[in-house]
């Protein structure tokens, strides 16, 4: 077995991959939320539909998509492994008596938060990603070119109160997950410094508030706009 295999099969290696995939997924969230803000543009969905077509046809974006899928799988699988290992290695009495004082609520419940986010992700992919690629999506024409009208699919979907509520609740859970995961990833990579660590913590807190809030605002905006 090579040193690479030994490294990434070790507990430390798994934590390292968790950190790297987590940071990559954080960058993905930045790109994803930036593109989705086109839903706010008052142009009948043209900009969003053009963006959706670019994201599903550009070769470079397709490669990034595959990297994203792999990152999600690695992050989830290793999270399950590390969670089980930590649970089996920690004495129950100690965990109960010391957890509240030695760690934050979200750090103690990363497994639960991650599970909720994973369930949300499956629903999200089925409702939009799957529909975009293989669903019966209406077509629309801009400047003589045909586009799948995903904007209409999104508008219709977010008229359902239960789906809007699911998105908002899931984004709150994502915020808690990110609040711990952002700082933890830098710590795992050994990027701790008396001077910079407080700034990283503040940046992580801001990120964990702003990005989930932007994601949550989209279904809320569409839902309340449809009521007018």
Looking at this protein, list some descriptive labels:
228 residues, mainly alpha, 3 helical TM bundles of succinate and fumarate reductases, two-stranded antiparallel sheet, 10 helices, 80% helix, globular, Succinate dehydrogenase cytochrome b subunit, Cytochrome_b-558, transmembrane
Task: Characterize the structure shown.
With 228 residues, this protein is mostly helical. It has a single domain, classed as 3 helical TM bundles of succinate and fumarate reductases, CATH 1.20.1300. It has helices at residues 3-9, 11-36, 46-57, 59-89, 92-102, 105-108, 110-134, 150-157, 161-188, 197-226; strands spanning 139-142, 145-148. The protein has a two-stranded antiparallel ribbon. Strand 1 (139-142) and strand 2 (145-148) form a beta hairpin. Helix 9 runs antiparallel to helix 10 (197-226). The radius of gyration is 20 Å and the shape is globular. The relative contact order is 0.12. It comes from Fontibacter flavus. Keywords: Membrane, Transmembrane, Transmembrane helix. This is Succinate dehydrogenase cytochrome b subunit.
Question: How would you concisely characterize the structure shown here?
Answer:
This protein has 228 residues and is mainly alpha-helical.
Topology (SSEs and partners):
Blueprint: H1 3-9, H2 11-36, H3 46-57, H4 59-89, H5 92-102, H6 105-108, H7 110-134, E1 139-142, E2 145-148, H8 150-157, H9 161-188, H10 197-226
Antiparallel strand pairs: 1-2
Keywords: Membrane, Transmembrane, Transmembrane helix
Protein name: Succinate dehydrogenase cytochrome b subunit
InterPro entries: Cytochrome_b-558, SQR/QFR_C/D
């Amino acid at each position: 077995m090579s040193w690479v295999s030994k490294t990434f099969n070790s507990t430390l290696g798994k934590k390292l991959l968790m950190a790297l995939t987590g940071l990559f997924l954080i960058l993905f969230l930045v790109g994803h939320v930036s593109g989705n803000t086109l839903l706010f543009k008052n142009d009948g969905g043209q900009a969003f539909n053009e963006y959706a077509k670019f994201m599903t046809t550009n070769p470079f974006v397709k490669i990034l998509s595959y990297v994203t899928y792999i990152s999600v799988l690695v992050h989830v699988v290793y999270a399950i492994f590390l969670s089980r290992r930590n649970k089996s290695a920690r004495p129950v009495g100690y965990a109960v008596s010391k957890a509240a004082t030695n760690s934050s609520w979200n750090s103690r419940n990363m497994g639960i938060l991650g599970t909720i986010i994973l369930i949300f992700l499956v629903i999200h992919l089925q409702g939009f990603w799957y529909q975009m690629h293989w669903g019966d999506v209406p077509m629309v024409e801009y400047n003589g070119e045909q586009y799948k009208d995903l904007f209409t699919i999104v508008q219709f979907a977010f008229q359902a109160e239960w789906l809007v509520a699911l998105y908002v609740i899931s984004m709150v859970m994502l915020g808690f997950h990110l609040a711990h995961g952002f700082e933890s990833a830098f710590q795992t990579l050994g990027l701790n410094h008396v001077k910079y660590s407080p700034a990283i913590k503040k940046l992580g807190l801001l990120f964990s508030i702003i990005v989930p809030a932007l994601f949550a605002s989209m279904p809320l905006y569409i839902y309340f706009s449809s009521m007018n």
